[in-house]
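Re-running OmpA family protein to confirm reproducibility after the cluster update. Everything else is unchanged from the original entry.
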Amino acid sequence: MSSRSSRFLLSALCVLSLASAHALEVTPPRGYQFSRPPEVKQHGIYTVYIRCASKFCGSIATGKTGDLELEGKTSRYTVNAISDQNEMDSRSINKEYLALATKAGGAQVDEGNSIGPNVYRIPRANGKGADWIVIEHNYGRRFEMTVIEEAAQELTATITASQMGQSIDASGSVALYIEFDTAKATLKPAGEATVKEIAALLKSQPALRLSVEGHTDNVGQAADNKRLSQARAEAVMKAVVAQGIDAKRLKAVGQGQEYPIADNRTEEGRGKNRRVELVKMK
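Result of re-run:
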């Protein structure tokens, strides 16, 4: 490795997840500069087309291509070499980012190529989620870099059929945080575990009928959120029926972003609003 590459390795990225902050802070390679302040979106979905090379590709199978959707705070940078003397070739830049990600316990998610996109996932030291670096349009002298601070995952709380029943008896409903793939209605394994508890509840109370109601935060278009919430409600209902429950005891309803229970201006609040509620039907 050249001395210039070694200096780049030390200066290109500061991983601050070991400190109190969970996010990544980035600096350009030595001899490069940001051409302007980053374009920042506080919360949204960033989509990048990849050929999957790891287990962190969501619903994309290894070796297959597709859109990887990353949700969270997005900072997009344009990076330029200050002069011809400072310019590195694109493959060297990609190798350095891979080395930095690997050192932090991360990995390259896509197969990658010289000009990109090249996608690197860096897990947080606290074990709660990860952050991502995407290198695109990399011609050595100039490239685009996007940093995605992954949104808090919709972690499914450990809630039993009995606990669901107690909440429904007390208030007529229960809110569940069921994990889906980002912007999709595909259940994750933790979500499937909750589905089994819903089925157990219904089996223990043969007269109980439930409206399965999907809710979202307010990120994106209201009409899109309505469709997504409906698709997620239907996915949960279908999964419960697959556990041996009569479909006539269930109804799927997409409420979209219309009924928040927390502040959509914060990540924590948005996480609470992304939920599925079971509502007792008469």
